[in-house]
Amino acid sequence: MPPISRLLALAGALLLAGQVLAEPRIELRIGDQKGNMRAQLEAADGLRDLPYDIKWAEFPAAAPLAEALNAGAVDAGIIGDAPLLFALASGAQVKAIAVDKSDAYGTAVLVDPGRRCTRRPTSRASASPPGAARLAITWRSRRWPARG
Known about the structure:
Number of helices: 5
Shape: elongated
Strand order of the largest sheet: 2-1-3
Number of strands: 3
Radius of gyration: 25 Å
Structural class: alpha/beta
Largest sheet: 3 strands, parallel
């Protein structure tokens, strides 16, 4: 191959490579609860050299994150079992793509020790937004024996 042909071939290859590199990167919109998942991924160095960009959207709880998933405002998000079940029961078009078992050691229904519980908690007495995991915990606590 003559030197001029090699130069033209190299120039053509560089031109094509420049076009490929100029392609816009894919942006993945991820919903996160209070920055928890982002913090874990950053601490584990799991966000380095990704072939796509991440745009984070922070939510105060899982219920609004599930609403954002249903509305298409985010592409993916991390929510627990109860918020997912509530979202599905309300007709949300969302899918679970991964499952992780968590322990219940950090979950509790707290009652003022100075108060005597004369009845089991009800959903009306719970200060939880619709679709929140706290609401499911309250419902589950109704099956426990009454103390007192």
